[in-house]
TrEMBL record:
It comes from the Bacteria. The keyword Zinc applies. Keywords: Metal-binding, Nickel, Zinc. The gene is hypA. GO terms for molecular function: nickel cation binding; zinc ion binding. GO terms for biological process: protein maturation. It comes from Aminipila luticellarii. Zn(2+) binds at C73, C76, C89, C92. Involved in the maturation of [NiFe] hydrogenases. Required for nickel insertion into the metal center of the hydrogenase. This is Hydrogenase maturation factor HypA. Belongs to the HypA/HybF family.
Length: 112
């Protein structure tokens, strides 16, 4: 449900960007959404279609780059994706710790 206001804000930011660049329409919006960001990419896509309908973003395509969370090994320092129920590093069998990778949420670019 919290995807609605954030999607509305994405459209507002995109409209402002288009107006500042004297553009008549937004062609593409590129987002980065981490799996642990708290936002569901498919819900953003759904709300985008509905909210953008009455804006200069109505013909824009929304591209979402999904980022999987990664752990960092305490022993070897390598990043890796966590397997279910395990923090074990696949490279050295050390223990992995959470990183901020996978928590991202931002507009990467707007094309007008």
């Amino acid at each position: 449900m919290h995807e609605y206001p954030i999607t509305k804000r994405i459209i507002e930011i995109s409209e402002k960007f288009a107006k500042e660049n004297h553009a008549q329409e937004v062609k593409q919006i590129n987002l980065v959404v981490g799996e642990y960001s708290g936002y569901v990419a498919s819900s953003i896509e759904l709300y985008f279609e509905i909210i953008a309908e009455d804006s200069i973003c109505k013909n824009a395509s929304l591209h979402i780059e999904r980022v999987k969370p990664k752990l960092k090994c305490d022993s070897c320092g390598k990043l890796f994706e966590r397997k279910p129920f395990s923090f074990e590093c696949p490279y050295c069998r050390g223990e992995g710790r959470p990183t901020e990778i996978g928590q991202e949420f931002y507009i990467k670019s707007i094309e007008v």
